[in-house]
Design a protein that fits this description.
Number of domains: 2
Helix content: 10-25%
Structural class: alpha+beta
Strand order of the largest sheet: 1-2-3
Largest sheet: 3 strands, antiparallel
Order of helices and strands: EEHHEEEEEEH
Strand content: 15-25%
Number of helices: 3
Shape: globular
Distance between the termini: 31 Å
CATH class of the largest domain: Alpha Beta
CATH topology of the largest domain: Alpha-Beta Plaits
Number of strands: 8
Amino acid sequence: MSITKEYTNGEVTVVWQPGNCIHSELCFTGLPHVFDPQKRPWVNTDGASTQEIIDQVKKCPSGALSYYMNNKKEDNMEIERENIAEVILNGPLLVYGNLKVKDKNGSETRHNKVTAFCRCAGSFNKPYCDGTHKKIGFEG
């Protein structure tokens, strides 16, 4: 079961899927008044302007954070037309675009925007990255 949490300021809703998070720390180093892992809830959508929140969420490399405008949820679903794979130094393989991932049993999972795949072989959520590469000092 995948967990999804939503936080809103009335104008924009930030969607967090912790199972996709690779703990890049870009969210809270880039906008600490909104994203603070030491607080509960850890997302404070009143901590910055809507545009600042959107700009920071777009920097999330794993896609664990996304957003939609409250007045146009369907209109904000971005569709990638091209798939791009990017190797992150000492980190995961990021694949941008719409993907259908089939597991060994034939079950399919759909992923949109960005999917982070493990390269260190240490993830407890294979084939996806869970941030273990930082704990084990993966280089590559």
